[in-house]
Amino acid sequence: MSYYRVFIKSKKWTLRVIFHFVDVAVCASWLEYKKDCELYKIQAKDVMHLLEFKQVLGRCLTIVPQLQNRKRGRPLNISEVMQPTTSRFVRGEVRPLQELQYDRMEHLPYHDVSQEATRCKNPKCTGRSRIYCNKCKVHLCLTKDRNCFVIFHTK
Length: 155
Ligand SMILES: [Zn+2]
Ligand SMILES: [Zn+2]
Known about the structure:
Elements: H1 13-39, H2 50-68, H3 98-101, E1 109-111, E2 118-119, E3 128-129, E4 131-133, H4 148-152
Antiparallel strand pairs: 1-4, 2-3
The chain binds zinc ion (2 copies).
One zinc ion binds near residues 133, 135, 136 and 153.
């Protein structure tokens, strides 16, 4: 907890106590996450450090309300759902956070109005599509013969 404490300059002890418990909850969930990683035999290099875990957690918690309020609020910027620049990031590829990709919430297909179809982002597909996922902001096939949209969102 002492590594990346929530930093507030408040003299109010109540606020400091509240943020202390936020720190406790975040650290406890990171330890839980590490246990899960062991359980699923995830390689050490792919396990997030506490700081990275906090960043992903923060983005996941702030992005869901943004998606829910998008009709009223500002449009979602595609860079906000991109992976952080880590070893797991494929350079030049726009990829959604895995935590969002597989959350099975509000992934809706939309039609792209541009002239040219865009490469489908389902790794096993070489097709092009004008359909994109409104949450992940990636193009995916959704035709009679190929449903990359479902494959992409299924683990
Ligand atoms: Zn999606
Ligand atoms: Zn495809």
